[in-house]
Amino acid sequence: MNSRTRIGIGLVSVGWMGRLHSRAYTEVARHYPELGIDVDLVSAADPVESGREHATTALGYAEAVADYREVLADPRIDAVSICSPNFLHREVALAAAAAGKHFWIEKPMGRTVDEAADIARGAVEAGVFTSVGFNYRQAPAVAHARELVRSGRLGRITNVRVALLADYSSDPDGARTWRFERAQAGSGVLGDLLAHGADLAQYVVGRIAEVSGVTETFIAERPVPAAGAASHFSRGDASAERAPVENEDYAAALARFDNGAIGVLETSRIAVGPHAEYRLEVYGTAGSLRWDFQRLNELQLAEGPGGYRTVYAAPGMGEFSRFQPGAGTSMGFDDLKTIEAQLFLRSIAEQRQLAPSVADGWSAAAILDAAEATAVSRTWQAVPVVDGPTTFDA
């Protein structure tokens, strides 16, 4: 670019993810100076006063407001980050599209596949550029895994395993926040974690065509939280009134890919032991690979009969060299969001979809919807091809 591009940013919801988005925006100029993109953190919306105060005093927003509609109506703002709870995603995203604002939205994109479809279609109709928070695909080791698979170096892909196991809800006295209510969250661990797993599998291996799922809720009731408790990790009072959990703690699905590979996708929010064990395993006729987010800078690679060797993320793999000079020096979670942020900002500046798109979000939602439906019917169900430009096969 010959001249600098200035993009005004708005934020909806100043929680942990909203704060992470905000830091990621400001890091883009440091790690990608040649892009010539400057961001102005214009306005953040949050109904909670402490959130608004944090936006202006810590994150650097020029102002903060209680109503997100004020952010969308602000002519200084070109793009917004939607980091609100799931039940607001459709409402805010469609309003942002109608206002002509590009948007970066967290997953799950909607509480249902229909909401995800509405968001995707609304964005396409409005002609805005989008990003969906599939940050794990941005890990340099995952970029290398994709290259190994797509180049044919592992041979014909035979089977794939994705497991996203977490313990954030393993305590039976963990508070029954909005995440356990179907009206506010939609599905449970399917949308919260397996959305990432579905996207990872498709990004590395290819489109999932058919699934058969199973789900279970193992902790049937939880204590009603104190006012304001909203985090994954909020703890309830064991003596407090308890209310039913309305969505699943565990889910798994068998999958068939377009290319003939067989997949097993599994996720749990109540696993005792794993903190954030998000694993991808790909097996082919000439080799296999394994990646775990808890060791995100390492890839286990086997080629031929010699067993696995550890390949460390290094310059030449994805965006690694933007953050570290050599193998063995680690990147972190926040860096993956910075990569996401630059893809979103570049999409706007270059007028082409580079970030994971709303069509990618819709595609993941279609997989989860089919898995949830077949958990009831105990059948196989085809996953429909979604409209719009997906990026997992780009």
UniProtKB/TrEMBL annotation:
Could you tell me which InterPro entries the record lists for this protein?
Answer: Gfo/Idh/MocA-like_OxRdtase_N, Gfo/Idh/MocA_oxidrdct_glycsds, GFO_IDH_MocA-like_dom, NAD(P)-bd_dom_sf
| Domain named GFO/IDH/MocA-like oxidoreductase: residues | 143-290
- GO molecular function, a single term: nucleotide binding
Q: Which domain of life is it from?
A: Bacteria
Q: Which residues cross the membrane?
A: none
**Keyword terms of this UniProt record:** NAD, Oxidoreductase
Q: Which Pfam families match?
A: GFO_IDH_MocA, GFO_IDH_MocA_C3
Gfo/Idh/MocA-like oxidoreductase N-terminal domain: residues covered: 8-134
What is this protein identified as? Gfo/Idh/MocA family oxidoreductase
The organism's lineage?
Bacteria, Bacillati, Actinomycetota, Actinomycetes, Micrococcales
